[in-house]
Amino acid sequence: GKGKVVPTLSDESNYGESSSKHEWESEEGESVAQHFQRMQYNKRLAAKKVNKAKAEAALQHRAINDFSGRIPDGLGVKVWGLLDVERLNSCFTGALSDCVYYSVHNNTIFVGANANWAAAFEYSSWQQAKMPASVVYKFAPHSFLRTPYELEWLYKHYANKHAPHCDQVVVYLLINKLLLVAQKLNESLLNKTMQALLHNPMYRDLQSPIWGDEDKDFVIP
């Protein structure tokens, strides 16, 4: 007679959203081979459903945390580009501390030795300094963190034991300087990123990776 049609996962291209998304239920008289095949099918289907749930949760997390909310007027706002997109004015109305250089050309912060280099270049040429070739500035294109999502990814890079030590120093300086700014500002001026810095001990109590003389090239402007 005809063999029983066995469901496969070949139709499950959208995490199980096809007509074969249901589990393969047991049937009376199934053989040992059919039982094994059914169990493997259901296991793979369950894994796909878990992956779908994780992907949806990750998208939702980014949607919530990759937006800093309206930029408070007290921080100052610069309008950029043809779309008139508001961006946080990284000058922070004079709240920046030492070891920091603010570029008026692209509204970007440089810290440590990068601050010394960028300041010297821009003052001598009156041209925009290029961003350092580091993955740090891919996570935070304007250095000072604009969204909790940027803060989260920068912290992950800091905590990665395989990350270059110079990157860890720069990340520490960026987070620490923004924390100092947040501590100086009125609560009404704090955006979501600053609130996360002040209230989350993981960021607030960040351990310094600056160990000794070998780190001076990264830190001293």
What would your notes on this structure say?
The protein has 221 residues and is mainly alpha-helical. The strands form two sheets. It has a two-stranded antiparallel sheet with strand order 1-2. Strands 3-4 form a two-stranded antiparallel ribbon. Helix 4 runs antiparallel to helix 5 and helix 5 packs across helix 6. The N and C termini lie far apart (83 Å). About 4% of the residues have low confidence.
Given helix and strand content, the structural type is: mainly alpha
In what order do the strands lie side by side in the largest sheet?
1-2
Which oligomerization state do the chains in this entry correspond to? single chain
Element order: H for helix, E for strand = HEEEEHHHHHHH
Rg is: 26 Å
Q: pLDDT below 50 for ≥5 consecutive residues: which ranges?
A: 11-19
- Overall geometry: elongated
**Major sheet attributes:** 2 strands, antiparallel
Provide a count of the helices: 8
Helical percent range? 40-55%
Average pLDDT level: 75
Strand content: 5-15%
Total strands: 4
Task: Give the distance, in angstroms, between the N- and C-terminal Cα atoms.
Answer: 83 Å
Which short descriptors sum up this protein?
two-stranded antiparallel sheet; 221 residues; single chain; 7% strand; 4 strands
